[in-house]
Specification:
With 367 residues, this protein is mostly beta strands. It has helices spanning 5-8, 20-26; strands spanning 32-33, 67-76, 79-83, 88-93, 96-101, 107-109, 118-123, 129-136, 139-149, 155-160, 167-171, 174-178, 184-188, 193-196, 199-200, 209-213, 216-221, 224-229, 232-239, 242-247, 254-258, 267-272, 278-285, 287-288, 292-293, 299-305, 314-319, 325-329, 340-341, 347-352, 358-366. The strands form 7 sheets. Strands 1-23-22-21-20 form a 5-stranded antiparallel sheet, with no helix packed on it. A 5-stranded mixed sheet has the order 15-19-18-17-16, with no helix packed on it. Strands 24, 25, 26, 27 and 28 form a 5-stranded antiparallel sheet that branches. The longest helix has 7 residues, at 20-26. It starts with a helix and ends with a strand.
């Protein structure tokens, strides 16, 4: 049973319906990135017999953290899916889900006794459960979802799923996703489903991406970013023309990826608050990868694909507290990928599909 390559990365990499080749000839944006500008103040005494005195004002300023690349490893023919722990990442290789240890290089199957085609995986925040999908033998169009208990190995079936709707962990014991009838559903560890009937604007379109943080549910519907509260399902639109988004763990900052209406308009990454107020622009360019906040909310990772040789390209990290953006590596320019942070903020995974599938495991050093 074979599935198109685009289907394999449906949850982790929603991309515009234009091909990369089309974009190469149609969209080139000037890349702009926010950066901190530092000025040095010199105080001098002057006169015929006076020596020049320089007062070091930098010594009185707090030292800002620096971000650098500490390691880069490549996994051929593998899609990096989700981090199970600080060292272990679940990858998809040859239609099987494999646990790869980034520290030792050792691997083992996630579900050694199952034989079906496995496409996607999503670990709960505490790493105790994994949602995964599996194809049905002799039926290339049916895909079912499961929840694996890592400690016991017990697997719960949650039934046939729609590949258009993304599944995310709302917390350690519940999944959340859109439904085929433009609603939302919550699924517990026993596979029980609770349907949420939304009200308000932008609820007639397919919900492709959803995320819950601190009791607030955010979702993209009708190309707008919307939010609802657990106890109040009246949706409110807070941003327009949104293709992807990610909410910081504290719920105070949301990064949105927006696509311009015209071919000449570049895509951009903007940070807003929970009410849609713009806090700042992070990047603007040709094609931008799906951004991701670090687990502690201090950093934002994003990638840029750039056909031309000028401007930014590769993987970058935006420091939320200082407003600085740091280039990490130019080796991977992947706009159609899912960036994932390890739970300890020390590693990032992303994959590229240009010349065969390669997943990069990137070590991050913060000092």
């Amino acid at each position: 049973m074979m599935y198109p390559r685009g289907l394999r990365s449906a949850y982790s990499a929603p991309t515009p319906h234009l091909s990369k080749g089309t974009y190469r000839h149609k969209r080139y944006g000037k890349l702009l990135v926010s950066c901190a500008v530092l000025s040095l103040l010199l105080l001098a005494g002057c006169g015929n017999d006076q020596n020049l005195t320089v007062v070091d004002q930098a010594a009185s300023r707090p030292v800002e953290p620096t971000i650098s690349l500490s390691s880069l490893d490549k996994l051929d023919d593998a899609y990096g899916r989700t981090w199970l722990s600080a060292d272990e990442i679940i990858i998809d290789r040859d239609n099987r889900l494999i646990v790869h240890n980034a520290a030792t290089g050792k691997e083992h199957p996630l579900t050694p006794h199952r034989k079906g085609i496995q496409l996607l995986a999503e670990a709960s925040p505490d790493g105790k459960h994994v949602f995964f999908t599996e194809g049905v033998e002799n039926d290339r169009y049916t895909i079912k979802g499961y929840i694996l208990n890592i400690e016991s190995g017990h697997i719960v079936t949650i039934g046939t799923i729609d590949m258009v709707n993304e599944f995310k962990w709302a917390d350690n014991s519940h999944l959340i996703s859109g439904t085929p009838d433009t609603g939302l559903q919550i699924i517990d560890l026993q596979g029980h489903k609770t349907t949420l009937k939304l009200q308000g604007d932008n609820i007639k379109d397919t919900i492709m991406q959803v995320q819950q943080v601190n009791g607030t549910i955010y979702f993209v519907g009708g190309s707008a970013l919307n939010r609802v509260q657990e106890g109040n399902l009246q949706s409110k639109s807070i941003a327009s023309d949104v293709w992807n988004f990610d909410v910081a763990p504290d719920g105070q900052s949301i990064v949105i990826q927006q696509v311009g209406h015209k071919e000449s308009e570049p895509g951009k990454l903007t940070v807003i608050d929970s009410n849609g107020k713009v806090l700042g622009k992070v990047a603007e360019g040709t094609l931008l990868g799906r951004p991701a906040w670090s687990p502690d909310g201090s950093m934002l990772a994003f990638s840029i694909y750039q056909e031309s040789q000028q401007g930014m390209k590769g993987l970058y990290i935006f420091n939320r507290s200082t407003g600085t953006t740091t280039p990490v590596t130019t080796e991977f320019q992947a706009y159609n990928t899912s960036i994932r942070w390890s739970p300890d903020n020390r590693r990032i995974s992303l994959y590229a599909e240009d010349n065969g599938v390669v997943t990069a495991l990137i070590g991050i050093d913060v000092k």
